[in-house]
């Protein structure tokens, strides 16, 4: 992998991982998130905790270079589902456009991370 590709990969992966860790932290520590999940979006409160745990696990899996590439594929797939589901959830409750578009922006950054990942090349070359 070229130096440029490594830089793009690590910046995009870092952005995704930091955003996921920050949102997981917010889900656990911010009392307003209970209201957002339960009343505004209509999700049960336990889903907030499950999503926080999944985001932490996925972020750690993407950042650690020694994790098997097939496991990283599952983390990418999980984050794709999270971003698409977030877009649908915000659309369904009529949220402002920035709440609807932001998950798609992060989906684009995730796509950059995936595309520039050396793991993707090794996974399909076998």
Descriptive keywords:
126 residues; mainly alpha; 6 helices; 83% helix; globular
Tell me about this structure:
The chain crosses the membrane at residues 7-28, 48-67, 74-91, 97-116. Keywords: Membrane, Transmembrane, Transmembrane helix. It is a multi-pass membrane protein. With 126 residues, the chain is mostly helical. It has one domain. It is 83% helix and 0% strand. It has helices spanning 3-29, 32-40, 45-63, 69-92, 97-115, 118-124.
Integer-rounded radius of gyration? 15 Å
Q: Overall 3D geometry?
A: globular
Q: Count of DSSP helices?
A: 6
Pairing-aware structural class of the strands and helices? mainly alpha
Task: Put the structure in a nutshell.
It is a multi-pass membrane protein. This protein is mainly alpha-helical and 126 residues long.
Question: Helix and strand layout, with pairings?
Answer:
Elements: H1 3-29, H2 32-40, H3 45-63, H4 69-92, H5 97-115, H6 118-124
């Amino acid at each position: 992998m070229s130096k440029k590709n490594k830089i793009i990969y690590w910046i995009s992966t870092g952005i995704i991982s930091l955003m996921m860790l920050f949102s997981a932290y917010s889900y656990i520590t911010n009392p307003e998130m209970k209201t957002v999940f339960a009343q505004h979006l209509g999700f049960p409160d336990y889903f907030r905790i499950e999503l926080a745990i999944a985001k932490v696990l996925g972020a750690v899996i993407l950042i650690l270079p020694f994790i098997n590439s097939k496991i990283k594929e599952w983390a990418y797939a999980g984050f794709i589902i999270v971003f698409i589901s977030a877009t649908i959830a915000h659309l369904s409750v009529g949220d402002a456009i920035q709440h609807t578009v932001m998950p798609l922006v992060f989906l684009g950054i995730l796509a950059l991370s995936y595309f520039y990942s050396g793991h993707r090349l090794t996974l399909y070359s076998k």
